[in-house]
Amino acid sequence: MRKLTADYIFTNNEAPIHQGVVIEENGKILDILHSREGVSDLETFEGFITPGFVNAHCHLELSHLKGVSDSGKRLVPFLLDVVSKRDMDDKIIMDSIAKADQEMREEGIVLVGDISNGSDTAKIKEQSSILYHTFFELFDMMRETPDIDASLATKISDFEMMPSPKSFVPHAPYSVSTQLYEKINNLNPEGVVISIHNQETLEEDKFFIEGKGDFRKLFETFGAELPANIPVGYSSAQYWSKFFKEEQALCIVHNTFSSAEDIKFIQEKFPHAYWVTCPNANLYIENALPNYQLFDFERMAIGTDSLTSNWQLSILDEMKVILKLNAYLNFEDVLKWATINGARALKQDGFGSLELGNSPGINLIKNVDVEKVAIKKGSVVEPLN
Fold first, then answer.
1. 179 touches 138 (CB < 8 A)
2. Fewer Cβ within 10 Å of end Cβ, the chain: N or C?
């Protein structure tokens, strides 16, 4: 049994506790004390004790592509780089996946929503102390296929190799046909979480509303005809929303250019939807961030995206970017995005809060501003268990 104390304890169930104590054993929270006075055998730290971080959106399988696509290229050129350059020696791919998993563990990440297109990450996920929810991604460039089951056979085989939890998901509104949405819904059991990339570039809505823009080039590169139903005359968010029931649990990722109208529409239609922001990736690809003031903060989570679109896999660094560029937000708000909201988005109630009986991981954030109860540029994280 360990008794851990620091300048502040953030449980996510109450206000931050000044010089409180977390009592844990083998990672399980046994008690939370509101004072360390008179408590013996304390391990005393400077900084903030928090639950383990949740990375609600990652592409672990792309870890070998770090640096292959320059920042600032915009989304469509970035996607073309990923597709054309992702094939490498198997050992390089597997070593990069293992290294990225280790990096996330060292950064205090305990739960990850991870996109997979194949089975490359299965072995690491089975061995890792991180719990991964695998979002197994499907796409067909909006082409209706007479023999869709045959085209999905290999994908389904790869999916079965993945440890649970897992679910089939659409890649993005511009890459999934009507019949593939239907197939995804039929393949998944009731109650699973589905993710979808959404409005990561202005070109996405231009494609759906007008049938114009960079996505024409993407279709040409894949040898795909422009879908007959494009343009639809309304936004991509309002388009993909037609394919899911209102009770569907959703992780809606990026949302860099989502309008107030679309955000309101999605929040009202899908009460179990969470918005997953990946600020460093948004800056890397489009040099833009979402307008966070438009979103329900209680439904915000944080992801890192992949090492192809980021400089590192650190939720703390994502928090620093958000707080630096959005002065109206505070550390306590954004910590919830990085912990309990991400856990709720992935439907993993045992994570995200220092609650009795939970085993959520315990982080120490060091080099903080104790007086302002804030993190700084030089703040770092150390997992305590």
1. no
2. N
Q: Quickly count helices (H) and strands (E) in the chain.
A: 13, 17
Widest CA span of the chain, in angstroms?
73
On the question of a cis peptide bond just before residue 383, with omega within 30 degrees of 0, the verdict is: no
Burial state string for 200-233 with b = 16 or more CB within 10 A and e = fewer than 16: bbbbbbbbbbebebbbbebbeebeeeebeebebe
What is the SS3 assignment for 246?
Answer: coil
Interatomic CA distance for residues 148 and 188, integer angstroms: 16
pLDDT tens, 317-340? 999 999 999 999 999 999 999 999
* Interval 81-135: pLDDT, tens: 888 888 888 999 999 999 999 999 999 999 999 999 999 999 999 999 999 999 9
Contact 255, 286 (CB under 8 A): no
| Residues 241, 43: Cα–Cα separation, whole Å | 50
Query: How does pLDDT run across 136-159, given as a tens digit for each residue?
Result: 999 999 998 888 988 899 999 999
Domains in the chain, CATH or no CATH each: 1-51+352-385 (2.30.40.10), 53-351 (3.20.20.140)
